[in-house]
Every structure is written in C-alpha cells, then in structure tokens.
Design brief:
heterodimer, A: 203 residues, mainly alpha, globular, B: 221 residues, two-stranded antiparallel sheet
Chain lengths: 203, 221
Amino acid sequence: MSGLVDIFLRAMFVDNMPLTLFLGLCTFLALSRRTESAVGLGIAIIAVLGITVPLNNLIYSTFLAPGALSWAGYGALDLSYLSLLAFIGVIAATVQLIEMLLDRFLPAVHASFGVFLPLLTVQCAILAGSLFMVERRYDFVESVAFGLGSGAGFALAVILLGALRARLAYADMPDGLRGLGIAFILTGLMSLGFAAFAQMVAT
Amino acid sequence: MAGTARYWTRLIEPLVRQNPVTLQILGICSALAVTTTLDTALTMSASLIVVIVASAGIVSLIRRHIPSSIRLIVQIIIVASLVIVIDQFLQAYFFDISQRLSVYVSLITTNCLVLGRTESFARNNPPLVSMTDAFGNGLGYALVLTIIGAVREMFGTGRLLGYQLLPTVDQGGWFEPLNLMLLAPSAFFLLGGLVWIVRSIWREQAEPSEFDAPKVEETTP
C-alpha cells in the first residue's frame, strides 16, 4: 500500500509534469491566463490521465509487450514498436468517449470543462503518462496511482500559475516581458520551489 | 522571380519574426526538456526537421483526398508513423543519445509545432511550398534549441559538444560550473529571457496590456 502512495506522491510532486519534466507546457501556458480555465483544465487532465494510463497499461501488457501474445500462440512476437500508434488511438478514442458521455449525462459539467477535452488528444503530458508507464514497468494498480498522481500534479501547478497570472494582469512591466515572457519566469520560480520536493520520496 | 521570393520568405520569416517557439508558443515541451547539452538539442532538432518536412510533404500530397472530418486522425497517424521510424533509427545508430532523449523523441508526435504546420499550412498548399514552410519552421525551432542548449551546456559544465572551453576549478582552471544551469528552472529562465530579448527588439511582437493603468497627473511643486 505504501508503495502506491509513494508512486502517487512521486508523480504529483517530485516528477511534476509541467514543472520538472516540461510536459504539456503549450496548454499549461495558454490556459493559465484565468483561474477558472485553469481549474477546468486541471480537472479534465486528472480525468483523462486517470483513465488512459491504466487502459494503455492493459493494452500494452496483453497485446504489445515482448512475449505478451503467448496466450494467442505468438510468444515470439514483439509488437512494442507499435505502442505509440496504439496509445494515440486509445487516447483519442477515450477523450471522444468522455466528451460524448458528459454531453449526454452531465451537460453542466460538459459546459464547464468540456471545451478543454478535445485539446487533450494532442497534449504531450497525456501521451507521456502512458510512455513513462511503459518505461518504468508499472503494473495495472500502480499505473492507476501514477495516472491520478501526475494528473493531480498538473492540476496543482496550472491552478497555482493561473492565480499568479491573474494578479499580474495589473502589474506594470516592460512591454517585451508581458504575457509569455513573465509566464516563463514565473514557471521557472515555481519549478525552483518544486525542486524542494525532490528529497521527499525515497526512490 | 516572384516564385523564388515566395519560397525565400517562407523559409526566412519563421526564423525570427514568426518564430514558432518565441512568438507562437508551439512545441515548447521538447524545447526545454532536451537542452541540458548541445548534442541532445541538435539531435532533437534534426529529428524534428525530418519529421515536420516529411509530414508536411505527405499531408500536402494527399490534401485533396482527406475528408475534413477525420483529417486530424489522419495527420496524427502520418506523424506518428514517421516518428516511429526516426525513433527506431536513433536506437539503431545513436543508442547513447536515444537513451538520454528517453520519451521525448516519441513526443514529437504530439508536438504542436508539427500538427500546427500541417493543419494550418500544408493542408491548403502545394507540396514544395509546404515543405519549404515546414523546413523554415523547423529551423526556427532548431535555432532556439541550439541557443538554449549551448548556453546551458557552456555554463553548466564549461564544455561545448564535449570540448572543454572554460577550464573548471577542479581541473585547475578558473571557472566554477553553475549547477543551476543543468536543472529544470534555468531552462524556463533562459527561454523567458530569450522571449524578452526578441520582443524588445521586434516591438510589434509584444502582447498588448489587458488593463490600462490609470493615468496619474504629476503635480509639479
């Protein structure tokens, strides 16, 4: 059990997706101008990562991993080079499915963060979640913890940055620095702060 | 003559004036993650240029045959297949660098720069000009990566591409390596500074202020 908590905390703080691994920065910077959109994006990311990483784990361990097809009599087959295509397909399908389900059953939720869902199909943090899952050889339960943890870490970072930038809208700063420039420097400062978590979880 | 000029603008514009990284916020993820040393930055740039030029060419060749409802899926599959080829190539011939790039080569698939160019340009233009445009954007991306990678490697270790340029203290020289340069935050600071420099020189790139500060009349005593 403590192993799972370790994985969750490690994914959330130590290997924070945008701040230490530089993943998903495009949406991270584009949607953190307002706190409300940052919250919506954060929830959407937790949901999508929490679903796609375990799903891709099942697909990888049943079909794609070296020797995984031995149940079908093709034990010598190694399809792991196809994992990129498979993961992208699963992510696109899942995002579409979540969007349709939300639209049908929870229209209020769909209206509040549904607009961010299509963006997540081509978001590097989502795909990287599945790729890291393969690289670190997580099993199914561990990949649930990892997916939820990295989603929570992303949500935390994007909401913090959104709150900071909302205040900075009133600041008087050099023209060239306004917008993207200061967002990078703020992210750098936050990343410096998150570096303090590096010793928190034993590897 | 006019034709050549058109290609030339397509190639030159994205280098600084329309730079995909500093102006359009495209493809930043990989721009920061792989720049701890110059050789990974160069490998990444080369892979991205190959992928973006090839995918722009292919998408532009079949642009009349893709139904617009499924065009994103088709484009992603084309890009993903090219990325798999590049990834296998790097693992076969540059195993050491491909280990250090870890998942970031695969992440070229979701690099917004590649999809952005195929979606906004190659889908509506003939192959040759699309490929020129893609090449220009790839070079613009490579330029940013090279600058950041060179600064980080130079000041983080005193070396450039493995050659010792600044003699470090523990080798009897004078240069104290800045360890911060090798950590994540410095990449953000450097890119933020670079954006600031570019936007101060080309002022039209600066973002408009969201709120106008109230004018305060100065009272002269």
